[in-house]
Design brief:
about 230 residues, eight-stranded mixed beta sheet, 17 strands, four-stranded mixed beta sheet
C-alpha cells in the first residue's frame, strides 16, 4: 500500500483499490528523469504522485532514470521521489488538460549526520524567456507576492521541538500562477509537505521583461519555529 506523508492523515485512509497502477495508465500525465548530481540517471527510484485535494495517488519507479505516469486528470499534485542512500525529494506541480508535463529531479546523497533531511540538488527546471529583439539593457519588473498562506505546523514536529527552514524553488508563470515547486532543503519530509501545501496557495504578480509578462525562477523560505 502506498504510504502517504504523515502530515496528511486523511490520505492514510485511501484504499489501495483507489490507487491506480502505472500499468493501467495510458493518457498523458507526468514524466521525467531522476538523476544524481554526479552519477547520472538513477535506476529504481520510487516516485509517488498524489492529488493535492483528494489524496488519491499513483506510484511508479524509474528505469535507467526515466519514469512516466499517465492518466492524471487536470489539477494540482504533490510528488515524492525516494531512493536508498539519497535524501527524499518532494515537490508540487499543476497539470493542464492533456498536456504532458516533464520534470527533472536531481537527488542528493543522504546526510550521514541527519538522515531525516529532505531536499533536491536543483530546481525542477529553469524559467523560459522569449528571445529579445532589442540591444538595450533589459527592463525587468520582478514578481511580487500578493498573498501568503501560513503553513500548518505538523503536530509531531511541534511536540518534538523540530524547527527549521524549508527552502522551495518554483517557476512563476506569465499569468502570475506558479508551477514546478521543489523542496531544495528541509529538516524532514513532514515539514517539506506542510510548506508545499501552503506555498502552492500563494499568489504572485507576473514578472515583466520589457513590459511583457514572462516566466521567472524564484526561491522562497518557509520557517517553522516553535513559540
Amino acid at each position: 500500500m502506498i504510504a502517504f506523508p504523515p502530515t496528511l492523515p486523511m490520505f492514510k485512509s485511501v484504499l489501495l483499490a483507489a490507487c491506480l497502477t502505472s500499468s493501467a495508465l495510458a493518457q498523458p500525465g507526468l514524466s521525467g528523469i531522476v538523476q544524481d548530481t554526479f552519477k547520472g540517471p538513477i535506476d529504481g527510484a520510487n516516485i509517488t504522485v498524489w492529488d493535492a485535494e483528494t489524496g488519491k495517488g499513483v506510484r511508479t519507479s524509474s528505469s535507467m532514470g526515466s519514469f512516466s505516469l499517465g492518466g492524471l486528470a487536470e489539477g494540482d499534485y504533490l510528488f515524492k521521489v525516494e531512493k536508498d542512500g539519497r535524501s527524499p525529494v518532494l515537490g508540487a506541480f499543476h497539470l493542464v488538460g492533456d498536456v504532458p508535463h516533464n520534470i527533472n529531479v536531481v537527488v542528493l546523497s543522504a546526510d550521514a549526520q541527519n538522515t531525516e533531511t529532505a531536499g533536491a540538488g536543483s530546481p525542477l527546471r529553469s524559467s523560459v524567456r522569449p528571445p529579445r529583439s532589442s540591444a538595450k539593457p533589459p527592463k525587468v519588473r520582478p514578481a511580487q507576492v500578493k498573498k501568503k498562506v501560513n503553513p500548518a505546523y505538523p503536530d509531531a514536529e511541534r511536540k518534538a521541538g523540530i524547527e527549521g527552514t524549508v527552502k522551495i524553488a518554483m517557476i512563476i508563470l506569465p499569468d502570475g500562477t506558479m508551477n514546478d515547486l521543489v523542496v531544495l532543503s528541509a529538516p524532514n519530509s513532514n515539514l517539506a509537505v506542510a510548506a508545499l501545501l501552503a506555498v502552492r496557495r500563494w499568489q504572485y504578480s507576473p514578472t515583466y521583461l520589457d513590459d511583457q509578462p514572462v516566466e521567472a525562477s524564484l526561491t522562497v523560505d518557509v520557517t517553522f519555529q516553535k513559540r
